[in-house]
Amino acid sequence: EGRETRLRVVLRVRPLTCTETRRGDQQVVHSLGDGAVHVSAARHDATFGFSAVFDAGASQEAVFEGSGMRQLVELAMDGFSCTVFAFGQTGSGKTYTLMGPLAQSYSQPASPALLGLMQRSFTCLLEQSRSRGSDLALSASYLEIYNEQIRDLLSPGPPCALPLRWSKTRGFYVENQLSVEFESLEAIVSLLLQGSQRRRTSAHALNRHSSRSHALLTIHVRNRAVSAHPAPGEGWGAQGSERGPTWVLQAGACPSKQGTLCFVDLAGSERVKETGSSGELSLEANSINRSLLALGHCISLLAKPRGKRTHIPYRDSKLTRLLARSLGGSGITLMVACISPSSRCLSETLSTLHYASRARRVTTRP
Q1: Which of 16, 26, 84, 321 registers the highest number of CB atoms within 10 A of its CB?
Q2: 320 is in an annotated binding site
Q3: In this protein, which residues make up the domain named Kinesin motor (predicted)?
């Protein structure tokens, strides 16, 4: 707590698709073990190091255990602000890593072996909650950033734009966002699938189910044990002011822990020429790439030593505003970089690897 902590960055390399194999694409990414990966192609020969590398044969369970996701869940329960986000080229396996198969629904759940980081984290969270015997209140909120508009994925009716505010105490936050309490695995999985089905997706040349928005699912973990009527001499007390009583924590009281666990599924970077996008799809791609560029710029500046950092332009996009605490503030962050091993995707793969390498140098103070 309070010490500088580096962002944990892991890499996942998806298998070659049937289309890529039929086309004769070469595999240019090879895992070397011990968190290292090598890219070998014409005029390109480079090695990158990460906290962990998961190759095409890695199971969903191996990614969950090897990425440090279980520890992140435990830290959220201890009151820390924790974030995990997946990024990479469109079609590189981000949504599959976080959620599992796209075809799953509440009536047709995915095979347990194929479940992603989200569902496995929910199970771990509820198991930990029961084993600790603590009186925890769990709630979830789910939003998407589509064409620089923030939309609630859980509120009834058609999605409408929500304002993004800033305050000295809360930092950047979304006003009027719906938060739904849950107590069981079935309830939170239902909220996840409900929100995901409302998220904007489209098909293009590189991905039949391309996410056209950035999605953020946040689990709020709050301790309900704090009493509104503490024993005499300890707990919460009221101090008078012009606006009425202000509740303050008195000496000897035990403050409640309020942690968060946020899953960020970033829309994939893409080149319009490769995807064949036009019209609305092209506009969406431009919006996605602009916000990812702003995110990359912030990461590049944050990777510099604290004494040499200049102003960090979080306000350049709504995505960077919402991730400000996770990237350079008081949060604990896990980044999952997803790449394709195909020679056809070499340029985007190298871009993702350089992006992830810079992120490894970013530090926060949880």
Answers
A1: 84
A2: no
A3: 6-362
